[in-house]
């Protein structure tokens, strides 16, 4: 049984890229709720990952929701290609586009759920103008661009404030966290109000036989 309705979205950024299809099959069988796909362009962040063709090739390995996180600037150029590739949610960075409302509208018009992500240096207060237009807010608890970074504890207050903002507005959205998530930090994030946890190294650094127990450990943190 899922405790507190917490969802786990393993980030394949930490998976074995020589066998991504099998890794997705394995985390699907292990009980992952979503599959998190980090898309980096080498411009918005100093790293380069995968494009729409790779995402499209991975779509056949699972029916689980594809949680696409665009760390690209501009973001709009990639919305339709990733929608066609099989994305279910596309999250863009608040810092990456001038007209965020238009970007969210494009995502919605493509028939997908829309998310906004903010860097650790970005105030959550800016989200007040957009939060009613999106389905998800992704709080980065590390600086975007690389996996394996240390969790930034100051972001917990940001999660709490977004939860309050959501409650005050009378809306329901997913609050997702990404960066440095493990069995200790997952507890802190859930307590602060997050309900979707992105985890990379905490899952994929272990043997495949342990994926299920690790996912359950993160989901049931309290």
Concise structural overview:
The protein is of the alpha/beta class and 222 residues long. The chain contains 8 helices and 8 strands.
Describe the structure.
By secondary structure, this protein is of the alpha/beta class. The chain has one domain (3-219): Aldolase class I (TIM Barrel, Alpha-Beta Barrel), CATH 3.20.20. It has eight helices and eight strands. The protein has helices at residues 20-29, 52-58, 79-85, 100-109, 155-169, 185-192, 201-204, 211-219; strands at 7-10, 34-40, 65-71, 89-93, 113-118, 136-140, 174-178, 196-199. Strands 1-8-7-6-5-4-3-2 form an eight-stranded parallel β-sheet. α2 (52-58) runs parallel beside α3. It is globular and about 45 Å long. The model has no long low-confidence stretch (mean pLDDT 94).
Question: Keyphrases for this structure?
Answer:
single chain; 222 residues; alpha/beta; eight-stranded parallel β-sheet; 8 helices; globular
Number of strands: 8
Q: What does the radius of gyration come to?
A: 16 Å
Annotated CATH homologous superfamily: Aldolase class I
- Low-confidence blocks of residues: none
Task: Give the helix level as a range of percent.
Answer: 25-40%
**Approximately how much beta-strand content do the residues carry?**
15-25%
Describe the protein's topology.
Elements: E1 7-10, H1 20-29, E2 34-40, H2 52-58, E3 65-71, H3 79-85, E4 89-93, H4 100-109, E5 113-118, E6 136-140, H5 155-169, E7 174-178, H6 185-192, E8 196-199, H7 201-204, H8 211-219
Parallel strand pairs: 1-8, 2-3, 3-4, 4-5, 5-6, 6-7, 7-8
Helix pairs in contact: 2-3
């Amino acid at each position: 049984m899922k405790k507190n309705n917490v969802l786990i979205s393993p980030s394949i950024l930490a998976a074995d890229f020589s066998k991504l299809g099998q890794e997705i099959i394995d985390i699907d069988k292990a009980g992952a709720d979503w599959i998190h796909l980090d898309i980096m362009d080498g411009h918005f962040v100093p790293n380069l990952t995968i494009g729409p063709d790779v995402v499209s090739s991975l779509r056949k390995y699972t029916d689980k929701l594809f949680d696409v996180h665009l760390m690209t600037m501009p973001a709009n150029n990639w919305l339709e290609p990733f929608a066609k590739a099989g994305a279910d949610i596309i999250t863009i960075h608040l810092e990456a586009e001038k007209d965020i409302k238009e970007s969210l509208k494009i995502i919605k018009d493509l028939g997908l759920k829309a998310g906004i992500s903010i860097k650790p240096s970005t105030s959550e207060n800016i989200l007040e103008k957009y939060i009613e237009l999106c389905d998800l807010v992704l709080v980065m608890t590390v600086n975007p661009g690389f996996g394996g970074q240390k969790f930034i504890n100051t972001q917990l207050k940001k999660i709490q404030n977004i939860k309050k903002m959501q409650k005050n507005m009378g809306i329901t959205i997913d609050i997702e966290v990404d960066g440095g998530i493990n069995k200790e930090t997952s507890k802190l994030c859930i307590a602060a109000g997050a309900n979707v946890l992105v985890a990379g190294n905490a899952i994929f650094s272990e043997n495949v036989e342990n994926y299920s127990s690790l996912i359950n450990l993160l989901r049931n943190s309290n």
